[in-house]
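Final report, Chapter 2: Outcomes

The project's central promise was a pipeline that accepts a single protein chain and returns its three-dimensional structure in a standardized token representation, suitable for archiving and comparison. That pipeline is now operational. To close this chapter, we reproduce one record exactly as it appears in the project archive, with the input sequence first and the structure output second.
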Amino acid sequence: MGADIVVTGTGFTSVRAVRFAGVLLPPGTYTVAGPDRILLRIPPVAPATLAPIEVETGTGLARSAPFLVSLVIQVDAMAPLEGPPGTVVTVKGMNLDHAGPVMKDGVAIPDQMLVDGTTLHFPIPPGMTSGALRFRAVPDGASPTLPAFTVTVPPVERVAFLDTPLAPRRVQPGAMPFMDPGNPGFDLLEYPAGMRTRQYGILHFPKAPLFHNYDPFLDNVRPGRHTGAFCTLALKLPQAFMEAVPRTLRDKVHALGLAEDRVDLYCVSQDMPYLDDAGYLFRPHYWTDPDAPATVTAPGAYNENRTVEVGLFDAPAAIHFQGHRQDDFFAGPVHVHDDGHSVLSSPAGVMNLQGLDHTTTTAFWTLVRLGDRAAATLHLFLNDADQAALNHHAQTTKSVRKVFWTAAAMPGNPALQKLTALMRPVVTAVYPGPAFSGHRDLLITGSGFTGAMGVRLGTVPATIFKVLGDNLILATVPASVGGPWACTVTTPLGGEG
């Protein structure tokens, strides 16, 4: 069935019609190659059909001996050939609707979606191992060869990251110059452990790009400060979060020719303790030189000169680097050196941040490039009240989930809005199935689907849906829904994507 065959005979000079098993072959499925030869393709009929081929000409009807149709199932391509659980594999071929389900180790892979005889989708289920695949036996024993599939290590899911325990470290009252001695104490929240540098000692700066005044200790500090740690929260995020960073930042990563797995992702909170809101210098050296010592025993023992490129992303209109437009991505030198005792940084004046207001909480992203590496950081700038609230939560918070749930409970806070946006669901592809009984199935891939409360195509909600994993949903929508429409998944933490 579907095979090309050659019919030989005589008198094929005025062919009016060709039939097989009583089925009229449409034009284009056969070609009269000469007075003694016709090329034709066997039409779709039931397997094991035994019937003659009929050729009708202007002079009469010729009929061949009975022709037996065998079922030929053909696999032309399968992709991808590797991926983690949840990967949707697409098989292209011929007569796949007669092949039966795809099997692994004698068990049918669940949630397969046959679009038609030429296209089949199936997701790689959790727990499946690498190895050969095959179709279940078809009636006449035909068994096309499928390539083997290699199951790779699944990425760390963004939702699973919420259950990561934090590593709080108690800082006693009065231990820092920015701290009111009456403060009852607070915790520094970090993941993973060891996220704090030794530079500037008791300030416990994170190993991530940061903003602070030239002298972070006592330079131009506002009187009556009552907030706690300068940087309470410091998270290094798994690569799975790259899907959820602002599109403009991700596009810049691609435009720079950087591999996404060479981009470190961070989220850092900090308060704004200085009198001068324009006194915040960009300090990427906590990322470029994370293991620099706090002190040296001899002058000149530590001296590193680097040139980085930096830009702002998803920032409020007022925020920019001095002398640059907000959308500039520009180069600047970073000099990390010692003064004979302490290790210091001398950042370029072009990396002076403008537009902050210490009474107003705000947030934005930076991207710093150093060679073939980069750091993308979500900076949360907190006013005194929000900083005090975070310090309070830090004393009892034991996991990242608590931090995100706390943020979700404060929807009006612009910094925390960007924090919870990291957990929004992201739809990367939709694979439609055939229409049946007025409905159509969809396989939806992406990330952040755990706990999904709704799925819709355009404005039409799914009739029913099943979350098969953090990165896969099977949904049913009315077949009458036209398109193309955006597919939207709604979750309790992170909104819609």
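Archive annotation: The mean pLDDT is 84.
This record, like all others produced under the grant, will remain available to the consortium after the project formally closes.
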